[in-house]
Amino acid sequence: MQTIGLIGGMSWESSAEYYRLLNQRVESRLGGLSSARTAMVSVDFAEVTALQEEERWDEVAEILAAAGRSVEQAGADFLMLCTTTFHRVAEQVADAVQIPLLHLGDVVAEAATEHRIDTVALIGTTFAMSRRFFTDRIASHGLKVVVPEEQEHPEINRIIYDELVHGHVTDASRRTVVKLIERLWEGGAGGVILGCTELELLVGQSDVEVPVFPCTTLHVEAALDRALG
Predict the structure, then answer these.
(1) pLDDT per residue over 174-225, tens digit each?
(2) What are the extents of the domains in the chain?
(3) What CATH number belongs to 4-103+217-228?
(4) Which label site among 76, 93, 99, 170 has the fewest CB atoms less than 10 Å from its CB?
(5) 225 φ, ψ to 5°?
(6) Cα separation of 217 and 59, whole Å?
């Protein structure tokens, strides 16, 4: 089994979900007392978020690149960013290490392609929905990517940052996101990407009819395919 390198802390809820899923899925695949070989460096979410809000991306890249090098030195065979939003600097992080980076955008796009879907919607942080770094990566696989209307972004962002990153999951917010997903489906999306780890704590395939692509779960499965392959 290869050692999976993780850059976490964005948020700690996201990192905990990655760690939980990696180990549960290894146990499911291998049985017995099997657990995932991992090396993680966790950054300060408050620090990198403040830099993000000030568009100081070179400094964000330096912090995450340093984390990546530490993970590499700890023996990781490949690297994952436990976040969607901070894939904004994925290329800089990849350039800073000698091990491969498993890009979340590629993983999600491959899953949608396997379902023979040509149009997908992305729900995530305002930053991820309003910038092109993640949607363009998915679109490079031949998919059309749509996002919710701009006026809907603040409420999604509030649910993520004011509730989910603190571990607060409410029925009211679940209903809000489910209704949004249904509107995106009615608008022509063949599937919906849950483009933020914390959203997977709130909604899942059992809540909606439209195919849902949970980024973290897909990322974890792809990592285990590589680590165990």
Answers:
(1) 999 999 999 999 999 999 999 888 898 899 999 999 999 999 999 999 999 9
(2) 4-103+217-228, 104-214
(3) 3.40.50.1860
(4) 170
(5) -55, -45
(6) 29
Residue type, 83: T
Catalytic residues: 83, 196
- Does residue 144 sit in helix, strand or coil? strand
Cα–Cα distance, 28 to 206 (Å, whole number): 21
What residue type is assigned to position 22 of the chain?
A: L
Is the N-terminal amide bond of 173 cis, ω within 30° of 0?
no
Q: What is the SS3 assignment for 34?
A: coil
Which token pair is 226? 């590589």
Per-residue pLDDT tens digits for 23-66: 999 999 999 999 999 999 999 999 999 999 999 999 999 999 99
SS (H, E, C) 3-33: CEEEEECCCHHHHHHHHHHHHHHHHHHHCCC
* Predicted structure pTM score: 0.90
Whether pLDDT at 165 is above 90: no
- CATH architecture assigned to 104-214: 3-Layer(aba) Sandwich (3.40)
SS3 content of the chain, % helix, strand, coil (to 5): 60, 15, 30
In whole angstroms, give the CA distance from residue 125 to residue 129.
6
- Residue 220 phi, psi dihedral angles, 5° rounding: -65, -45
Q: Rounded distance, CA 219 to CA 195, Å?
A: 11
